[in-house]
Amino acid sequence: MQNKKVFISLGVAIIVVGAAAFIAGSLLNQKVGPAGLNGQGGRVLNLVPAPELPTTEPEATGRFEERQDNVIVISTFSLRMGGGGVAADPVGRSASEDDLGPKVEILITSETAIYRDTTQFPSPSDSKVDQAIQQTAEEATLDDLGSSSIVTVWGRKSGDRIIAEVLFFFTPTSFGPAPE
């Protein structure tokens, strides 16, 4: 009788775990656009990169930590966070210390082009259809970087530093629907 209870309990546990895994997989496998931005209600926002930005892979992406004259330090995003793309965190979760990788120094020269993201996203009440959003950027300065800015840099590595050719940043609090 004891063996029968163990087998029944084990069978029920396997069914419950299997159902939970199926549901979790279904939720995690929602439709995601190229930029990884999932809109509300399953709507996909395909972000078309700003023409000012290079089409090559960036050297690094991470959270702005500090600035010392013309050198900034960022904490890169770990692979667990999603590889460090601009949309690495589409659900609005803030990066914890566990999500951050090593710190990287970025040297800003007089040749470095600095841009701030100015993209306006549609409000959730807009059309539920998949749509392309043109990313926009405007020239900025290092003084515009804030403590919560997410920085992406293109350039060349020189030792432990990156010499920036293009620096692009956005502030997550301003990353959202267009004001009505």
What layout of secondary structure does this protein have?
Blueprint: H1 2-28, E1 37-38, E2 44-48, E3 60-68, E4 71-77, E5 100-107, E6 113-117, E7 131-134, E8 137-139, E9 150-158, E10 161-170
Structure notes:
By secondary structure, this protein is of the alpha/beta class. It folds into 2 domains: 1-30; 34-174, no CATH class. The chain contains 1 helix and 10 strands, in the order H-E-E-E-E-E-E-E-E-E-E. Strands 3-4-5-10-9 form a 5-stranded mixed beta barrel. Strands 1-2-7 form a 3-stranded mixed sheet, with no helix packed on it. The longest helix is centred in the N-terminal third of the chain and has 27 residues, at 2-28.
Structure keywords:
single chain; 180 residues; alpha/beta; 2 domains; five-stranded mixed β-barrel; three-stranded mixed sheet; 1 helix
What can be said about this structure in brief?
With 180 residues, the chain is α/β, with parallel strands linked by helices. The chain folds into 2 domains: 1-30; 34-174, no CATH class. The protein contains 1 helix and 10 strands.
State the order of secondary-structure elements, H for helix, E for strand. HEEEEEEEEEE
The largest beta-sheet arranges its strands as 3-4-5-10-9
Query: Helix content range of the residues, please?
Result: 10-25%
Poorly predicted runs of 5 or more residues: 16-21, 30-37, 80-95, 174-180
Instruction: Work out the number of β strands.
Output: 10
